[in-house]
Amino acid sequence: MSISIQNKRLLFGLKVRLLRRDLDLSFAELSEATGISISYLNEIEKGKKFPQSAKVQALAKALSTTKDELTSTNLPKNLQPIGDLLESNILEEIPLDLFGIGAGKIVELMATAPVRVGAFISTLIEIARKYALQQENFYVAALRSYQELHNNYFEDLEAAAAVFANQHRLAFGDSFSLEHLYSILLHEYGYKIDEEGLGQYASLRSFRSVFVPEEKKLFVNKELTDMQRVFLLAKEIGFNYLNLEPRLYTSSFVKIETFEHALNNFKAAYFAGALLMPKENLKRDLEAFFALKKWDGQAFLDIMNHYNASPEMFLHRMSNLMSQHFGLDELFFLRFNNQPGTNRYLLTKELHLSRQHQPYGNATDEHYCRRWITLWLLEKLYDMQQKGNYTKPIADAQRSRYVGTDDEYLCFTIARPAHPTPDTNVSVTVGFSINDELRKKIAFVDDVPVREVSQTCQRCPITDCNERAAPPHILQQEALKQQIGKDLLALNG
To answer: Which of 39, 118, 329, 431 could, after both became Cys, cross-link 411 (CB 3.0–4.6 A)?
Structure first.
């Protein structure tokens, strides 16, 4: 078994703990038998210390084993799942400290019930294999949890963007020109910028940028719109101004090797959004929009265009501010991709604040409810493209009432063709749980049409659905199980 020094300490401490418990020895008794202090023994069992050779020999003797057996990475069958976990080094990669959990706590849990915990670990490994879960998936999920724990609002990044803007006399408006941002990268950070290089490689033509750190050379996709360039350059400034290392060097995730890569990429993007859409300005614009008596899709798009933002930039920036400045902390953000003309919709980004809202991602081959605005607006977009009527992003709103629950959401969605990715349409949605606080803040909520929705077609009880893309066989299976349970109870009198 090939594991790190840290995990060798964890494994050694686990063995000591289990052997001590098997022999029913207290810390005091083991300390007396080995001459090792109780505090040091405690550190050993937590995986924080690895004793010198003489102390290892004393521990082996007191625990009725040998030095080789105690230090070997070979494990008995009941501890093998723990060995598999440590061999993967995943405990080093998981950002446990962000959530107030130390790796020693995991090992301590393992020691309390190794067979049951081992079975649990084996189950997780099996699930990961079945669904082909990758390390990158975990890092992205951990980042999402990190955002949710902070209500997706980070005052330190807001402040950094404000200080940078002040230092460079960047007042919102014309100062955020491409030329100005290019100048900062070229003259302050010594960048070289190439807008031709990516086009030479077919596999890289969908990338927005690639950064080569040795040359400080930024390759920018020449097919990007001006708004995409502005955000890209502001994000690159964020990497430098915030001294974010390690960092990703490609605009699209190719391989995320550590959680810090994902976290620093998020911080640079957040900085860019805060710089280009200052919170006080956007807050005033949203307050004026929410005061309207009727939903106005064009007025919504006008705010986005005022900041020269893409739909994703705009709605994600909204998600930053709604909890902190509007008191609306039950919200979600979704991004769906669709190949025009197909019935396949891919959830490519999601964020849920306060709790898991509908809809949410699943790894099974199910069909998301076509009644959700984030999907039917994509269908409307494709229809406009087919008729030659599409000219700019389209926006709409929907009150989505989730069938069988009291959950109802006010959803704002913007759809457009993806760029520069060919043959892809994308929709982004921000949704807010409808409650008393929302009704105080958003005047037009009752003007927005209501639609009863579900999670997926396979789980949907709505019988008169014209949009259904698959039969409700999972719902039917669950109903059959419930009926079997009732019939078994009746049979037993």
So the answer is: 431
- Provide the domain limits for residue 186: 147-276
The tally of domains found in the chain comes to: 3
Q: How many CA atoms lie within 13 A of 463 on its CB side?
A: 1
Alpha-carbon span 130 to 350, nearest angstrom: 22
User: Are both 123 and 157 inside the same structural domain?
Assistant: no
Q: Tokens representing 99?
A: 């959530």
Q: Is residue 138 part of a domain?
A: no
User: What's the pTM value of the predicted model, to 2 decimals?
Assistant: 0.74
Pair 30, 49 in one domain: yes
DSSP letter for 304, please: H
**Span 117-139, pLDDT tens digits:** 656 655 655 555 554 455 556 77
For residue 141, tell me if it sits in a domain: no
Among 254, 280, 279, residue whose Cα is nearest residue 265? 254
Cα gap 191→34, rounded to integer Å: 61
227 and 364 in a common domain? no
CB within 8 Å of 179: residues ≥ 6 apart:
none
The token duo for 304 is: 């986005």
What is the arrangement of strands in the sheet containing 408-417, beginning at the earlier edge strand?
345-352, 331-338, 425-433, 408-417, 394-402, 450-453
Which residues touch 124 (CB under 8 Å, ≥6 apart)? none
Cα distance between residue 206 and residue 407, in whole Å: 38
Instruction: Quote the CA–CA distance of 292 and 430 in Å, as a whole number.
Output: 18
- Residue 79, class by beta-carbon neighbours within 10 Å (0-12 exposed, 13-18 middle, 19+ buried)? buried
Q: Is residue 451 part of a domain?
A: yes
**What are the backbone angles phi and psi of residue 279, rounded to the nearest 5°?**
-60, -40
* pLDDT (mean) for 246-265: 82
User: ∠ CA 239-240-244 to the nearest 5 degrees?
Assistant: 50
Q: In whole angstroms, give the CA distance from residue 281 to residue 435.
A: 26
List the one residue out of 307, 312, 285, 274 whose CA is nearest residue 173: 307
With b for 16 or more beta-carbon neighbours within 10 A and e for fewer, the 187-200 pattern comes to eeeebeeeeebbee
Helix (H, G, I), strand (E, B) or coil at 297: helix
State whether 69 and 163 are in the same domain: no
Helix (H), strand (E) counts: the chain: 20, 9
Query: Is 104 domain-assigned?
Result: yes
Residue 432 three-state SS: strand
- pLDDT at residue 132, as a whole number: 46
* Pair 151, 177 in one domain: yes
Instruction: Examine the pLDDT at 366 and tell me if it is beyond 60.
Output: yes
